[in-house]
Write a structure and sequence with these properties.
Shape: globular
Strand order of the largest sheet: 1-2-3-4
Number of helices: 0
Strand content: over 45%
Order of helices and strands: EEEEEEEE
Oligomer: single chain
Largest sheet: 4 strands, antiparallel
Distance between the termini: 46 Å
Low-confidence stretches: none
Mean pLDDT: 83
Helix content: under 10%
Bound molecules: calcium ion
Number of strands: 8
Radius of gyration: 14 Å
Structural class: mainly beta
Length: 116
């Protein structure tokens, strides 16, 4: 099914100073979602796509001043996971997705990897 974007003035509110944007299907419903990195309120907004209408399905609190995000299936369970790097931290926060149930809030577990 093709997604159509019929309303060019559609707005979705995310956090302060959104600086990065990536796309992917994190809840495994075959519709490509968006993730926005909100630098100044230390959060990540997951915008779920429902037939071309995006709404924030989950907001993750992360270390201060997130500046980069990446996604891949790091634990090999076929759900796409998320890693966040913050300017004020020596931690990479990795969120594992549990989207097999097509939940709108797929990121329910995370751990941090310290680097020096
Ligand atoms: Ca999706
Ligand atoms: Ca995974």
């Amino acid at each position: 099914m093709a997604t159509s974007f019929s309303n060019s003035s559609m707005h979705t509110l995310v956090g302060d100073v959104p600086i990065k944007l990536i796309s992917g299907d994190w809840n495994s419903d075959n519709q490509i979602d968006l993730i926005v990195v909100n630098r100044d309120n230390s959060s990540i907004s997951i915008l779920q796509n429902s037939n071309g209408v995006f709404s924030v399905s989950q907001t993750l609190s992360v270390s201060e001043h997130p500046i980069q995000v990446a996604s891949a299936d790091w634990d090999g369970d076929n759900d796409t996971d998320l890693a966040v790097l913050s300017k004020e931290s020596t931690l990479v926060q990795i969120w594992f997705c549990a989207a097999g149930n097509k939940s709108s809030k797929c990121f329910d577990l995370y751990f941090s990897v310290k680097f020096s």
